[in-house]
Amino acid sequence: MAGPNHGALGATFKIVRWLQAVSLLAIIGITANFISQMVSSNTSPPNVLVGTLSVTCIAVLYCVITYILYLDSVLPFLINTGMDGLLLIAVVVVAVTVGKPLSYLNCQVIGETNGNAYAFTAALGYSLDKTGGMTNYNNWIGATKTTCFLMKAIWGLSIALCILFAFSAICSVCLWRRSKTVAPKDVEG
Fold this sequence. Notes:
Blueprint: H1 7-40, H2 47-71, H3 77-102, H4 117-126, H5 137-140, H6 145-180
């Protein structure tokens, strides 16, 4: 199951796709856990988490499909470059939206908690906004050390995904250029 032979550029593309999938799956797991805990506490999750989960689910599906198409040598590299660019924009939006309040937050100075479900639920109760039971993201991220560190992990993975999607777009355009070059014909044989 080696796929097409595109040399080091092709191997780099495959490695970057795997790194993207692993990062996306980690973000999905952490975000889905937060949303599940909020829903079980009868609160609405912040739009930031819902948007993050939506973008990452679409992106992981895209990564799997393009990886399979690459292995079958039917991946349209130019279209893939454009799609990687669009996902880069989406991941930049996620990174900026998640990270804007996190950049000012020092997780080490947040009060000591054991990170159990009760502490999380109690912290959620304090962070509820006055309108309709919607969790206020800016208050919620600083409720416990565990929440703060996990959200910083999501932020860091989002930044890494920005780099990885930019890199895979560059690889795709290089693979497209390589596929467009025609090998010279042998005139003697």
